[in-house]
Structure formats: structure tokens, C-alpha cells
Design brief:
Layout lengths: L1 H9 L4 E3 L1 H10 L3 E6 L10 H12 L3 E6 L1 H6 L9 H15 L5 E5 L7 H11 L4 H8 L10 H16 L4 E5 L3 H10 L9 E5 L27 H10 L17 H14 L2 E3 L9 E3 L2 H9 L5 H15 L1 H8 L2 H7 L1 H5 L7
Parallel strand pairs: 2-3, 2-5, 3-4, 5-6
Antiparallel strand pairs: 1-6, 7-8
Helix pairs in contact: 1-2, 3-11, 5-15, 6-8, 7-8, 7-9, 8-9, 10-13, 11-12, 11-13
Length: 348
């Protein structure tokens, strides 16, 4: 049983710092972890990767918290205006809680503790140790940094302090968060604080291919979690999905459809059925992403079969979110009025 839990904790990760620490935490049953997200742009399927890892860790015996980092959404070059923080936080909570409706999660909101005296004391102390260049390196992958604001340099330092404030020993994030969470490894010991064990997940590339960022401003690059069925199917069928290609030589996913299957659907659903014509061997069910990727590289799965199967699975899996927001257009319109007006945010 313990080996099964360890395998769950390690699957679909790009890097763990350190592997020995995580294995010890899982085996001892002492894990308390968190995944944080700032309520900025519309919620899309890229978030299914860390949420799938949250689910894995809960099943591995880790007590997981999800931080709705509302203050961070403003600190990142005001991606969310101060007056919009409350409604976007509610919107993110609804999306996440519907996707993880059967998973035992503790939800936290940044503004509930980030104004406390103890939090600021640690923020001041660690800020005096971190150089501007180190803060810039930490912020560069996650904040805009177009005309860098002071808030964008404070952002990663706050994110590190969140680990202590939430009393966790595991921090979960995408690989783009690496420079931030490594601050806890470098500077926490200097303050007498315990560094956290870091789990970094791969990122799903844009539906338009690895050269285009998955962005809310490019509708065809992503799928929002409450999109209409016909929109999901259309986007998946048009997506970049080259025959026999899964990853680059650097092990980064380049095929978004394979990445969605491996990093999101199989972890969240437990398996994925690839529907094929009987003349081509008939349907095949994968509960191991590695086997699916191997068969795709060997040409045993045709891109169109994979696309149709992924579209069907996404449509079914996202149904609870879609059904909820069919009755809550008001929440989407309040959270993203301009984006809806511009056609960047679909209504289910």
C-alpha cells in the first residue's frame, strides 16, 4: 500500500526537490501540502494538471490545501483590479471545487492571513536577505515584468512566506514556479524556518502548438472549463497533434492533446478509453499515461482517434462545471465583463 502511495505522489511530475524527502513524508503519513493559484484570467484546462496532482496527493495520504491567492492577483501588475478580487476569488473557488467535488480539500484565501503582523514580520526579514536580481529571477516566469513593478518583486517573496503561514511541508506548482519555491530552500533556514519539499508539474502546451502560449487572450489556444460541448470538440479537433510526437528532446510536452490525456484526464478519471474502428483493433483503455504515450509514438494510436476520445472525455468530465455556470452567467459576467464582451470568454 505504501509503495502505491509513493507511486501516486511521484507520477506526472517534472521535478521533486527532494525525492527522498517526499518519499519519507509519504511513508510517514506526515504530509501537509498546498497548491496556490491567483484568480486572474478565466479558468481553463491547463489548471487540470495541478488539480490532478492535488487529487493524487490526497489519495497518497497528504492533507492538501488550496490557496486562492487573491492579493497576488493584484500584485502581478494588477491583472485583477482590487475591486474585482472578491468576485474572481468566488469564481475560481466554484471552478476548482466543482472539478474536485469528491476530493477532501481545505480552501484558504490569501487576504485572510496576509495582513497579519506575524506574516509581515517574516516578509520584512526575508526581504532583507534576498537580492533584487534573485527576486527578479523568481518573478520572471510567473509575473508580467513588462515594466517591472515593485509589487512583482514582492510577489515571489510572499509566495514563499505563504508556505510557512499555511504550515505545510509540501508545495505544489507548475515547473514555472520553481524559482519561487526554491526561495524556501535557500532562505528559510536563515530565519530558522523549515524549507518545504517542492513538487513541480509539467505544463500543457497551447492547443495551437508549442510556439504559442496558452492564453486567455488567444481563444483557440485554450479550453475554458465551462465551454459549450460543440466548442470543446471544435477546438480539440483543430488542435496541434502531430503523428507520433509527444515530447521534445528536452522532455517538454509539445503535443497538447497527448499532454491533456496524460497529465489531466488519466489522473482525474483513472483511465481513458481510446475509441477506434474494429478494423484497427477496436477500443483500448489506458490507465497508465506512459503506455498511452508509448503507443502514440509507435503509431498505434491515430491522432484523429486520440482527438475524438479526448474531446468526449473532456465534455463528460467538465459537465458539472458547465451545468453550474449555465445557471450562473451572472458570476462570469461580473468577473470578466470586458472579456465576455470581446468574445474571449464563452458562456455555457
Amino acid at each position: 500500500m505504501l509503495n502505491d502511495k509513493v507511486e501516486l505522489a511521484f507520477r506526472n511530475v517534472e521535478e521533486v526537490v527532494t525525492r527522498e524527502e517526499l518519499e519519507n513524508i509519504i511513508n510517514s503519513g506526515s504530509g501537509v501540502g498546498y497548491y496556490g493559484t491567483a484568480p486572474t484570467g478565466p479558468f481553463h484546462i491547463g489548471y487540470l494538471v495541478p488539480l490532478g496532482k492535488v487529487s493524487d496527493l490526497v489519495r497518497a495520504g497528504v492533507k492538501m490545501k488550496i490557496l486562492l491567492a487573491d492579493i497576488h492577483a493584484y500584485m502581478d501588475d494588477r491583472k485583477t483590479d482590487w475591486g474585482m478580487l472578491k468576485v474572481r476569488t468566488e469564481y475560481y473557488f466554484r471552478c476548482i471545487s466543482l472539478l474536485l467535488k469528491d476530493v477532501d480539500i481545505e480552501y484558504c484565501v490569501g487576504s485572510d492571513f496576509q495582513f497579519q503582523r506575524e506574516y509581515f514580520e517574516k516578509l520584512y526579514r526575508i526581504s532583507a536577505l534576498i537580492t533584487v536580481s534573485r527576486a527578479q529571477r523568481a518573478a520572471s516566469m510567473v509575473t508580467r515584468m513588462r515594466e517591472p513593478k515593485v509589487s512583482e518583486l514582492i510577489y515571489p517573496i510572499m509566495q514563499a512566506i505563504d508556505c510557512d503561514a499555511l504550515k505545510v511541508n509540501i508545495a505544489l506548482g507548475g515547473i514555472d514556479q520553481r524559482h519561487i519555491y526554491m526561495l524556501t530552500r535557500e532562505y528559510f533556514p536563515l530565519l530558522g524556518l523549515n524549507p518545504v519539499t517542492c513538487i513541480f508539474t509539467p505544463l500543457i502546451p497551447s492547443l495551437r502548438g508549442p510556439d504559442v502560449k496558452m492564453s486567455a487572450s488567444i481563444p483557440e489556444s485554450n479550453i475554458q472549463v465551462y465551454e459549450p460541448e460543440e466548442s470543446i470538440r471544435k477546438k480539440v479537433l483543430r488542435a496541434y497533434c502531430p503523428m507520433k510526437e509527444v515530447k521534445s528532446s528536452g522532455l517538454q510536452y509539445t503535443n497538447p492533446i497527448v499532454a491533456i490525456a496524460s497529465l489531466a484526464l488519466i489522473p482525474m478519471l483513472g483511465s481513458l478509453r481510446i475509441e477506434r474502428d474494429p478494423s484497427k483493433g477496436g477500443d483500448i483503455v489506458y490507465n497508465d499515461a506512459g503506455l498511452l504515450e508509448r503507443d502514440y509514438v509507435e503509431g498505434k494510436i491515430h491522432p484523429l482517434d486520440l482527438k475524438n476520445s479526448v474531446a468526449n472525455a473532456l465534455i463528460d468530465f467538465l459537465k458539472p462545471v458547465r451545468d453550474y455556470f449555465k445557471t450562473r452567467h451572472d458570476l462570469i459576467l461580473e468577473a470578466y465583463p470586458e472579456e465576455v464582451k470581446k468574445g474571449l470568454v464563452p458562456l455555457p
